[in-house]
């Protein structure tokens, strides 16, 4: 039985990846942080009592800022595959916590690589590093591929740049199977509540149900290449199953503005929205409602710009070129944006209707 170790198992991707690997027959180990409240909601359905024989889902307390802890867990588990998904993953928050972000997202990656090397596991353990389209930052060329130059625009992206290159360096220096998946934005009903897509689908569901007045957002012009996390964890696994270790872009190749994601989310519940005004004065109002289940007021302002959500330096346009992953990995996403919005909206309407 293959053993996988996932850092960031309590996060969106960790939860979907754990589910996928369990379905493939892996023994799955995950690193979770100690917190004052239970933080395992996304993986509770996978939990198995460790007192039972043959439990295939095992959690370990740990933190990417603690080398000794990382070394001990890797030594104990002796994993065939490590998926390093743990990170302070919020771009805006990284401007408030730049040093911590560097420690965890940058040096944390080094801690994993170095632990595998020190423990003599370089021939056994394959390592996946969760790299990001945020590396491209300020647009150099589109669509962005494995050969597009990087220009990171946040402490998060700069820390991930270190993670990217130290992974490449350990591969080249020590012959390790250590690879980067350069994943573009991927979302799901499990997405953290403060990322823009989930903030929108939660807000729209609550506005439709009469539980919230309006949605405050930042830059509506930003363009993102959004896919579904379920599809993207399949790609992570494929990236570690190849004969030669290489880095891959994972994306849909389609980009959409934040404003249009808002529009599509309202449409999903039968509400038409109209945007007027410019810059910080732009607002979104309800134009029509074709769903008798919702008593919304036509003309009501439901989207307002709040500059507090602007970033000191923004990434305006991301659109990935998935040619290499399609041809070499045979990877194709099953969800398009419409199907993603539908999945998220249905889940949030259900959540708030309860
Ligand atoms: P989440 O924010 O949902 O999950 C992050 C995970 O990392 C959580 O389990 C979190 O634990 C854990 N974590 C945070 N800090 C530490 C730490 N100091 N030590 C150990 N674990 C820690 O992110 P996603 O699941 O969306 O993303 C997974 C990875 O992929 C991240 O590295 C992210 O940067 C990267 N990525 C994500 C993309 C996306 O669109 N989702 C695109 C490209 C890259 P806790 O639950 O306790 O907070
Ligand atoms: P991103 O995701 O920064 O791309 O990083 P996020 O959803 O936070 O922002 C996407 C775009 O939407 C704009 N935006 C807002 N963003 C948030 N969070 N809240 C708002 O109210 C809001 N209004 C507009 C942002 O300015 C931005 O342009 C995500 C994370 O998962 C990273 O970890 C990952 O590496 C990248 O995706 C790929």
TrEMBL record:
BP GO annotations: 'de novo' GDP-L-fucose biosynthetic process
Pfam families: GDP_Man_Dehyd (PF16363)
Coiled-coil features, chain-numbered ranges: none
Gene3D superfamilies documented for this protein: NAD(P)-binding Rossmann-like Domain, UDP-galactose 4-epimerase, domain 1
Family: Belongs to the NAD(P)-dependent epimerase/dehydratase family. GDP-mannose 4,6-dehydratase subfamily.
PANTHER family named in the record: GDP-MANNOSE 4,6 DEHYDRATASE (PTHR43715:SF1), GDP-MANNOSE 4,6-DEHYDRATASE (PTHR43715)
The protein's name in its UniProt record: GDP-mannose 4,6-dehydratase
Organism: Pseudarcicella hirudinis
Gene it is expressed from: gmd
